[in-house]
Structure formats: C-alpha cells, structure tokens
Design a protein that fits this description.
The complex is a heterodimer of chains A (about 140) and B (about 110). With about 140 residues, chain A is of the alpha+beta class. In chain A, about 25% of the residues lie in helices and about 40% in strands. Chain A starts with 8 loop residues before the first strand and ends with a helix. Chain B contains six helices and three strands, in the order ααβααββαα. Chain B has a three-stranded antiparallel beta sheet. The chains are: A alpha+beta (about 140), B alpha+beta (about 110). At the A-B interface, β1, α1, α2, β7 and α3 of A face α1, α2, α5 and α6 of B.
Chain lengths: ~140, ~110
C-alpha cells in the first residue's frame, strides 16, 4: 500500500435490466421506492437538496443531490462520519441509465476516498481496541 | 478474491482466534507457549487456531531452535479496511434488491 492518504478510488457496478429507463428512474428517485432497495431516506430529486440515508445497522449517511437529468443521470454525495477515522468516507455516487434494445444498462459508480485509511491500515499502535470492537459489525454487514 | 476473503472472515469470526491475533498485533511476536499461557485453552488448540490464522495470511511463523514464534501480518486485513471491496459487495446486493423491486412494480 503506497497510496497517498487522499488518493481517490472508485467502485463500478453495472447491470443490464429488462426495464425502460423511466421505470428504473422512479425506483432511484421516489423515497418509498428507494427505501425498498437501498435505505430509509428523505430524498428529493432536486439539485442541492440535502438528505440522509439510514442503514439497518444504525449508520446514517449525509448526502446532497449533485446532478438530476431525468431518466439519464443521478448523482449525490455519500459521506459517512464515524468516531473511528478508519470508517470515515467521503464519496460521490453516480447512476447512469443507458437505453438498450432489451431495456436499460444501469451503471453505478462510487468514487471517493477515506482520509485516514492509510493510518488505519498501517497503525499497529493506536485504535486496535476500537477496530476490533467494530470488526464484528463489519463482518455482520458483509455476511 | 472471494475465496481469500472467506478465509479471512472465517478465521476472524472465532473469538478465541481473534483474541490470539489481537494479542500478536498488540504485543508483537510470541511463542506458542507464551500465547497458551494467556489463551485459556490448551496448547494443541492454540496451535490449531494459529494454523487457521496462518492459512488466512494473518500470522507468520518463524522457527528458532525448538521454538516457533508467531507474528501478526497486519497487511492481510486490507480487504476489511478497503472500502472499495466492501462497497462493491454492498452495491451488488442492493442491485439484486432493486431488480426484485422492479419485478414487483410490473404487477
């Protein structure tokens, strides 16, 4: 790990879905539908709107709508603040909808960084107790 | 990647193994005998746990005379700390849920 602490990394998940973009757009932008597949929220498809996503595990994400191009592009910030710096995350999530002959290709890209990740990774001295206290939660979430 | 991560997660899911690993991470290299003295389980049990940790890449052993010294390999924890691998799994499962929802919206 020679990455600098502020290096930006990203996650891309893409999937073809046999539905028109308009329908997927509804699932991405209507709060009661977002809740069914993602998390509880107070989302509004308005640039600049600040909202929270609330996870089942009790975590709360601070978000702000960045881009709204109906049926094409939706982007919002996805920030997580935690007492333990190793779990802090500043990122942006962008959904891109591309029509295909059989439906839509939905692409989600999350880019961002964890400011103190390097410290958490290499730090054998500090934070171990907190780290292990949180480890089980992480494992539960991944499991 | 999934296979490696499975070994990592499984090996840390056991509280005794986690305690052994945490002690090595905190106090540095130790012999099996020293670990056994504080583990609250028998030496063969400690050796077995160390074997699992070693296969997951979490500890390394070093032979010196008749003693084997173990040390923690903190780099092996990277998949747990790397947010990108956590989030990739997260989004795949959320996309599954999204597809379920879209299916129901048809009806």
């Amino acid at each position: 790990m020679t990455n600098t602490a502020t290096e930006t990394r990203s996650v891309v998940v893409e999937r073809e879905m046999p539905y028109p973009p308009e329908k997927i757009w509804r699932a991405l932008t209507q709060p009661h539908l977002i809740e069914e597949w993602l998390m509880k929220n107070d989302f509004k498809p308005v640039v600049g709107h600040r909202f929270n996503l609330r996870g089942d595990w009790g975590g709360v994400l601070d978000c702000e709508v960045l881009v709204v191009e109906p049926n094409r592009t939706l982007s919002y910030s996805w920030n997580f603040t935690h007492d333990d710096a190793a779990y802090n995350l500043k990122s942006e999530v962008t959904f891109t909808l591309t029509p295909t002959s059989t439906g839509t290709r939905l692409c989600m890209e999350q880019s961002g960084f964890r400011p103190d990740q390097q410290q958490a990774y290499g730090g054998a001295k500090a934070g171990w107790h907190q780290f292990f206290a949180k480890l089980e939660q992480v494992l539960t979430r991944l499991g | 990647m999934p296979t490696t991560n499975d070994a990592l997660f499984n090996s840390l899911a056991d509280p005794t193994r986690r305690a052994i690993f945490e002690r090595l991470a905190r106090d540095g290299e130790q012999t099996v005998a020293a670990l056994t003295a504080r583990a609250g389980v028998s030496q063969p049990a400690v050796s077995k746990h160390l074997g699992v940790l070693k296969r997951a890449g979490l500890v390394r052993d070093r032979h010196e005379g008749r003693q084997t010294h173990y040390s923690a390999q903190l780099g092996a924890l990277a998949p747990l700390i790397d947010w990108t691998s956590q989030m990739t799994g997260f989004w795949h499962s959320r996309f599954d849920q999204l597809e379920d929802l879209l299916k129901r919206m048809d009806q």
